[in-house]
Design goal:
- With about 375 residues, the chain is an alpha/beta fold.
- It has 16 helices and 13 strands.
- The strands form 2 sheets. It has a 7-stranded parallel beta sheet, sandwiched between helices. A 6-stranded parallel beta sheet has the order 10-9-8-11-12-13, sandwiched between helices.
- Helix 9 links the parallel strand 8 and strand 9.
- It is globular and about 60 Å long.
- It starts with 5 loop residues before the first strand and ends with a helix.
- The protein binds uridine-5'-diphosphate (UDP) and alpha-D-glucopyranose.
- Alpha-D-glucopyranose binds next to helix 1.
Length: about 375
């Protein structure tokens, strides 16, 4: 590990996949770094529980004015970014490098980096475009990256390609796939599947398809419910909360659908949980039904570490993680019929599912280890420092 000191920056206090990933990175770098958060919340507590120093910057809630779909150059948004940048620049002085974990925190860090004369790395975890952001926001953030970032770390080749397609400088980009520690999956007792099913009131022989994503329409849980509605006896486990603004109405919609006669008693909406490895163990298959391009999808790796076959939509970074027919099944986004056919094929042929899961587990351990991710980030920090 190089000796350079790093201030990681994130805009949110809640735990999405980007924050789970930064949690591991910040913990590994806690001797030489800290995390500045533009908003307080459970993420700050999780970092501190792992011994990471957290700097809470006041006024982060004003940044909520900066929306993925707003026209960025609104007065309120510009003032909020400028204020936060000044506050960040003040606390950044003891650190040699700023490392931003989201588009919003990157905009703030880019300006703070100018003020404090510090280089800025952007860990890009979003597909810029394809329905995720407004065209104006993409133009602004890519222009700022070309102007201010010393490096853009992309969580998949698909994320990197979208950045370049939006006008981002190719030389800035390094791909570092997410990596996940296998230990919590390997430590589960052998009776976990039976114990979780008993807790949830699901019969031992029922076929269970689990989906582990926050409740946003683009994560596609509604498509899974469409597929399961046509498959009598099949259960769906929806794990994940409405984390970010605008997600609550979708949660209400899913809960209402779950209570409809075609699905009642077969859909288990569990909300946000912190025992994902044991819940994965209760599933026969893990479904990742995103209807927009998924930048990476940590849950795909987690499902493979839990030795579950995966059915996922073929878009974004997913094909880099799941190989169709080898470690899972890929289906077109938004196609409940094809998704249902894949689930049915796995239900009829458990031996095939077990083979996919075995290959997936091997591949996840080989290709998506936490150690490899940390080494990738460390390499970038070392190169930037030198
Ligand atoms: N997760 C969790 N509790 C939940 C649902 C999800 O801890 O109830 C975790 C999940 O295990 C994964 C992360 O949240 O590590 C989601 O990351 P992913 O990259 O799959 O999606 P994102 O939400 O970042 O788009
Ligand atoms: C973002 C993406 C997700 C990715 C995560 C970690 O939240 O939506 O696909 O796995 O970041 O990089």
């Amino acid at each position: 590990m190089s000796g350079v000191t790093v201030l990681f920056v994130d805009h949110t206090g809640v735990m999405g996949g980007a924050q789970h990933s930064l949690l591991d990175i910040a913990e590994a770098n806690r001797e030489r770094g800290a995390v500045a958060l533009l908003e307080d919340g459970p993420f700050a507590a999780a970092l501190e529980a792992r011994g990471v120093r957290v700097l809470r910057l006041d006024g982060g809630t004003a940044l909520r004015a900066v929306k993925k779909w707003s026209v960025l150059p609104r007065a309120g948004a510009i003032v909020a970014v400028a204020r936060m940048a000044r506050a960040l620049a003040r606390v950044a002085r003891p650190y040699e490098l700023l490392y931003a974990n989201s588009p919003k925190s990157f905009l703030v860090a880019a300006l703070a980096g100018r003020l404090a004369r510090r280089p800025v790395v952007w860990h890009l975890r979003d597909i810029l475009g394809e329905g995720h952001f407004s065209a104006t926001n993409v133009r602004v953030v890519v222009a700022v990256a070309n102007w201010c970032a010393v490096r853009v770390v992309a969580n998949s080749a698909a994320t990197a390609d979208a950045f370049v397609a939006a006008g981002g400088e190719p030389e800035l980009v390094t791909v570092v796939h997410n990596g996940i520690d296998a230990a919590p999956f390997d430590a589960l007792p052998a009776d976990t599947r039976a114990a979780v099913r008993a807790e949830l009131g699901i019969a031992a022989d029922a076929f269970v398809a689990g989906c582990f994503s926050r409740l946003h329409p683009w994560k596609g849980q509604a498509v899974l419910l469409d597929a399961v509605a046509r498959m009598p006896g099949v259960h769906a486990l929806l794990v994940g909360g409405a984390l970010f603004s605008g997600e609550a109405p979708y949660e209400a919609e899913l809960r209402a659908r779950a209570a409809e006669p075609a699905l009642a008693g077969r859909v288990h909406v569990l909300g946000a949980r912190d025992d994902v490895p044991r819940l994965l163990a209760a599933c026969d298959v893990v479904v990742h039904p995103s209807v927009l391009a998924e930048p990476f999808g940590r849950v795909l790796v987690e499902a493979m570490l839990a030795k579950r076959p995966v059915v996922a939509t073929r878009a974004g970074g997913v094909p880099e993680v799941v190989t169709d027919g080898e470690t899972g099944v890929l289906v077109p986004p938004g196609d409940a019929r094809k998704l249902g056919e894949a689930l049915d094929a796995l239900r009829r042929d458990p031996a095939w599912g077990a083979a996919l899961a075995r290959h997936g587990s091997e591949r996840a351990r080989r290709r998506f280890s936490r150690t490899a991710m940390l080494a990738g980030v460390d390499r970038v920090i070392g190169e930037v420092a030198s």
